[in-house]
Automatic annotation (TrEMBL):
<feature type="compositionally biased region" description="Basic residues">
    <location>
        <begin position="20"/>
        <end position="29"/>
    </location>
</feature>
<dbReference type="InterPro" id="IPR012665">
    <property type="entry name" value="Trehalose_synth"/>
</dbReference>
<dbReference type="GO" id="GO:0047471">
    <property type="term" value="F:maltose alpha-D-glucosyltransferase activity"/>
</dbReference>
<keyword id="KW-0413">Isomerase</keyword>
<protein>
    <submittedName>
        <fullName>Maltose alpha-D-glucosyltransferase</fullName>
        <ecNumber>5.4.99.16</ecNumber>
    </submittedName>
</protein>
<dbReference type="InterPro" id="IPR017853">
    <property type="entry name" value="GH"/>
</dbReference>
<feature type="region of interest" description="Disordered">
    <location>
        <begin position="1"/>
        <end position="50"/>
    </location>
</feature>
């Protein structure tokens, strides 16, 4: 018999009068005391399995050991049964945290002697956030990351997304400062969102112990011990390196022998001579039993990010990840977690063709476990899953409460670049047809990653299917090729060399530089006051698209300050690996507390800001920030974040976009109320008719921003609008309760 969830939640039944901002205390457990001493420092002697001191040091530093300690403190506690956890609840998550500031630790400029976490926990910053309408901060990864080589720690290879410890990296602050950040957020009605990475770790203590075949540590990873008679198939490891990527030939040979599963569906971050396969071979390692071994391990991403094995009999990988989550929620005090790389948790050999590595049921099962555990202790999760729309829907049905909006992000960038919303409208309609609820999505402006094309739905899942586009039918593969090419032509090349292509994934840029390129600006040094005003208007247009629809709205410091990319010549040392994304991660002084700084404390150069610091903008009524405040006030006052999207109508002008949302009738006296977002993605003034079968004739149309009357819906279920360049309107269509009753 299928379970029918109750109409009333546990919270509603037990605490019907409790304000939403007051949340039940979560189960608490401390991994380390407030005044704990630092862990044992590096020792001396051999750095292999023959040195017991070295092995013990690694165990003390390992995430698995910490996970076991903290997990035991939650077991057998009554508080672990007080929250519903079986099913995702996106609207509850959106109500807890609706507008997010997404931080990037190494790019935030702080006062001398003040850490990133201390700056983020400054009450003055949270007062500014409350002024704008921001109610949550996503810290980004702040725990120790990178690797361990011998007794030494090696730096991160992927912006701290290669975690190796549950300890906060000292360059970002301390555990006490993280807890204080959470306290300040709560005092201001806000939340703090942390990261866990269920798909991989860095090459820290856990990986080094796995190489030595110590205890359960090999079970954390997708790694296979290679018999010595087959070492001739393995690449030589260059001096100073700890592994070498397998060639396609070596991958095939080991797969033919039945040792590894071989080729996967794609090679993310493919680079000739650097990463040609998803497998690498270790150097020779002496284990705790004195045996010398070489291993081959899986890494979906970079060589320094070995993949976690979620179906090893030891379940060591699962213990590590769940322990990391409990530490963040129960020890540090966060409200939610981002699940990074969570779509790549299952891999299986296929009879023919590449191994099954995307959309695998094990990923769904593992995400269900993680998300269920987080809900069980009172938090929520969101995922960044760049797969087909069907995969996003399937994973969200049992896993994370929210998903990053990889559905529409390239669509709205394409609409701005071309002045035509047709592809964006196709994305929105397809999403609705597939069954993705927009309220379950995190609609974001710029983050730390490139403008990813995110075209897998079209070129992978539906490559041969036909789609209507520009008055004809084309295949998904042709559609993806067209969109990618048009983005490249409009946003990069000689006419916009300040933006850079990032491998095959997308374009390294900021939101401001996307707009500049779309407007035909060839040199960012030539931007004058009039052009900056046009960039501001277009930036607000993109904010309206993301904020005036159901779901979370997220933006970064790069957005708040209108940051431009760093010139390539300023950061040649960061670009040697080909990772052009560093140009978009310019350092920025959000609160204007270090006006003379030229770099962040992490060494990232300060970039050019078009809008100025947050305090400067708060004092200027015409600033980007204060105009954004008005946009977010409309969103908050009318409950747009938890509305239901019901229509993406055809439009009267190619640059126009219309989204129709059904609001909560309780907020409108029981009457049916619609919110209609109307946007102009073009550089010219447009006039046109807005029509939808969802409209009721003769209902008044009101501008939510100004409160003015637009007119009434005519008998053809339409009304007319006039929009200046990059303008947007949020309109209310509310039926009369008495008329409806008659």
């Amino acid at each position: 018999m299928e379970h029918e969830p109750s109409e009333i939640t546990y919270d509603g039944q037990r605490y019907p009068a409790r304000p939403r901002s007051l949340r039940r205390p979560r189960p608490q457990a401390r991994l380390r005391g407030e005044d704990h001493t630092r862990r044992t420092g590096p020792g001396s002697g051999a750095t292999d399995g023959t040195n017991a001191e070295y092995v013990d040091w690694l165990v003390e530093k390992s995430m698995l050991a910490d996970a076991i300690k903290i997990s035991r403190q939650f077991s057998g506690q009554a508080s672990m049964w007080q929250n519903p956890y079986a099913e995702p609840d996106p609207r509850r998550a959106v109500e807890m945290a609706s507008v997010w500031f997404t931080a990037y630790p190494i790019s935030l400029v702080t006062p001398t002697g003040t850490s990133f976490l201390a700056s983020l926990g400054d009450p003055r910053l949270w007062e500014a956030f409350r002024h704008v309408g921001i109610d949550a901060v996503h810290t980004g990864p702040v725990k120790n990351a990178g690797g361990i080589d011998g007794w030494d720690q090696t730096p991160s290879v992927d912006g701290h997304f290669d975690r190796i410890s549950t300890e906060i990296d000292p360059q970002f602050g301390s555990e006490a400062e993280f807890r204080r950040l959470c306290e300040v957020a709560t005092e201001h009605g806000g939340s703090v969102i942390d990261d866990i990475v269920p798909g991989h770790t860095g090459k820290g203590a856990d990986f080094r112990l796995a190489e030595m075949r110590h205890s359960d540590y090999p079970g954390i990873y997708h790694m296979v011990e290679i018999p010595s008679e087959h070492w001739d198939l393995l690449p030589d490891v260059p001096p100073g390196d700890d592994a070498a990527n397998l060639s396609a030939a070596a991958e095939g040979a080991l797969a033919d022998l039945g040792i590894i599963i071989g080729q996967l569906q794609r090679v993310i971050f493919y680079a000739p001579g650097i990463k040609e396969t998803n497998w690498s071979a270790t150097r020779e390692v002496v284990g705790v039993d004195g045996v010398t071994r070489r291993w081959v391990y899986l890494h979906y991403f970079k060589q320094g990010q070995p993949s976690v094995n979620w179906l090893d009999p030891s379940f060591a990988g699962m213990k590590l990840v769940i322990g990391d989550a409990l530490h963040s929620l129960g020890d540090l005090g966060t409200s939610a977690l981002r699940l990074d790389a969570n779509g790549f948790l299952g891999v299986e050999k296929s009879v023919e063709g590449p191994a099954w590595s995307e959309g695998h049921p094990l990923s769904e099962a593992a995400n269900h476990l993680i998300a269920g555990m987080v809900r069980k202790v009172g938090g929520f999760t969101f995922q960044e899953l760049n797969l087909t729309m069907e995969d996003i829907k399937n994973t969200s049905e049992v896993g994370a409460d929210l998903s990053y909006d990889f559905v529409n992000r390239p669509g709205y960038q394409h609409a701005l670049a071309t002045g035509d919303t047709e592809f964006l409208r196709l994305c929105l309609r397809t999403s609705l047809d597939v069954g993705i609820d927009p309220a379950s999505l995190v609609h974001a402006l710029q983050n730390h990653d490139e403008l990813t094309y995110e075209l897998l739905h079209w070129e992978s899942g539906h490559a041969e299917d036909q789609f209507p586009f520009r008055h004809t039918d084309i295949t998904g593969q042709q559609l993806a090729k067209t969109v990618r090419q048009e983005l490249l032509e409009a946003l990069t090349g000689e006419s916009a060399s300040y933006n850079q292509v990032f491998t095959t994934n997308g374009i390294a840029c900021t939101t401001a530089s996307v707009i500049a390129a779309a407007r035909g600006v060839t040199d960012l040094d030539d931007l004058d006051a009039d052009e900056i005003e046009q960039i501001t208007r277009a930036h607000l247009l993109l904010a309206k698209f993301n904020a005036w629809q159901p779901g979370v709205f997220a933006l970064s410091g790069w957005d708040l300050m209108g940051m431009l990319p760093l010139p390539v010549g300023r950061i040649p040392h960061l670009l040697t690996s080909g990772d052009t994304r560093w140009i978009e991660r310019s350092a920025h002084d959000l609160m204007g507390t270090a006006p003379g700084a030229t770099t962040s404390s992490s060494g990232i150069p300060v970039g050019r800001s078009l809008y100025g610091s947050v305090p400067h903008q708060v004092a200027d009524e015409t600033s980007f920030l204060n105009r954004l405040r008005e946009v977010l006030a409309v969103r908050r006052e009318h409950g747009i974040a938890t509305a239901r999207q019901i229509d993406i109508p055809a439009v009267a002008h190619p640059a126009m976009l219309v989204m129709v949302h059904e609001l909560d009738p309780e907020q409108h006296g029981g009457a049916r109320a619609l919110q209609v977002t109307v946007l102009n993605f073009g550089r010219e003034t447009i006039e046109g008719t807005v029509r939808s079968d969802a409209f009721t004739p003769r209902v008044p149309v009101t501008d939510m921003l100004s409160g003015g009357d637009i007119g009434r819906v005519d008998d053809l279920q339409s009304f007319s609008v006039w929009l200046s360049p990059y303008a947007g309107m949020s309109l209310l269509l509310c039926e009369d309760v008495d008329a409806t009753a008659k």
